[in-house]
Amino acid sequence: MVNRRSIDFVVRMLNASVFHLSFPFFLIPCIKLYGITNEGLAFQLAAVYGVLLFTIRLAYWLHDRSQRQDGKIDWDDEIVLITGGANGVGYLLAEALAIRHITVVVLDIHPVKTALDIESYICDVSNPEDIVRVAKEIREDVGEPTILVNNAGIVHGKPILDLSVDDIKKTLNVNFFGQAWMIKEFLPDMIKNNHGHIITISSAMGMMGAPQIADYAASKAAAKSFHEVLETEIRYVYKTPGVKTTLVCCGKVETGMFHGVKENLPFFTPPLEPLEVVRKIIRSMEERRGRNQIMMPFYVHFVPLVSITPAWFQDLARTISGADKAMETFVGKKGFVQEKLIVEPIELDSNNGSKNSEADKDK
């Protein structure tokens, strides 16, 4: 649920009121009731606003429709593979899907502890040989994955000079190279069948870095760039519109990964609940848009713009937001106690749910 003490909640309320397509139809009659004629400035501004709003909404609708040419997903035909699914967003995503009896496979260096029907394999995604080995087992035991969620990630939270060579290699191997090896392994069958979905978990830090996070920011920037090139190759090189992509760039998510990091302006940079991210990812899977981006919370939309501004403005933005000192209190998962979250069934499309959706309704 969106934090009501954040700008995200304000934006949501504005979208449901002032920016809603029906707003001008209420505004213009109210202006007329005050006796303002068609030549009045207030009436003309309201009319221009209505036309502009309609034009923007229509353009968005046409773009959205063009991205959904294949219709919504049929979960009975899908096998979802999630890396880093033993905890955090990956774990909650796996449970949210499995509770609907959707076939879910999880890769992690730790075993997955769950009572749900989730296939799990011990795998180090930074090792390409390990991926090849586990991929063979998955295909024999479960089938060919059709949705790949590259979620595995680590962070050290150290200044550059405190990072060892092994620290930097490990971060890049897990956060970037692991994603590349997974795509190399499972993309060919998606291309062959012209059906699939690759979801890349990047970060707002991949668009604009901050102190004590150089290796993490570099790895997420690499993952983002790799994903963007993948999108273009799927469209122009492989010409397989049935293979969809989603890029996820989020701010701080309350999984414990960045435990200890403080928000200087929580109203503008609120931390995200993991289930908020999970809902967005599942919706992306459902709707099967051609090229989709998930950027949240609201401030993340402006990070790319700030990153191309002059250095003095970037420094000012970091100082005001507190990003310049945020990692000084970084503790990480070693100091984080995860509250037990109850994963309830997330609403899926009634016509495209799992084959056991009717049974779920009776529970």
UniProtKB/TrEMBL annotation:
Keywords: Lipid metabolism, Membrane, NADP, Oxidoreductase, Transmembrane, Transmembrane helix. CDD domains: 17beta-HSDXI-like_SDR_c. The chain crosses the membrane at residues 12-35, 41-62. It is found in: Membrane. GO terms for cellular component: membrane. It comes from the Eukaryota. The keyword Transmembrane applies. It is a multi-pass membrane protein. One of its GO terms (molecular function) is all-trans-retinol dehydrogenase (NADP+) activity. InterPro entries: NAD(P)-bd_dom_sf (IPR036291), SDR_fam (IPR002347). Belongs to the short-chain dehydrogenases/reductases (SDR) family. Catalyzes the reduction of all-trans-retinal to all-trans-retinol in the presence of NADPH. This is Short-chain dehydrogenase/reductase 3. It comes from Lobosporangium transversale.
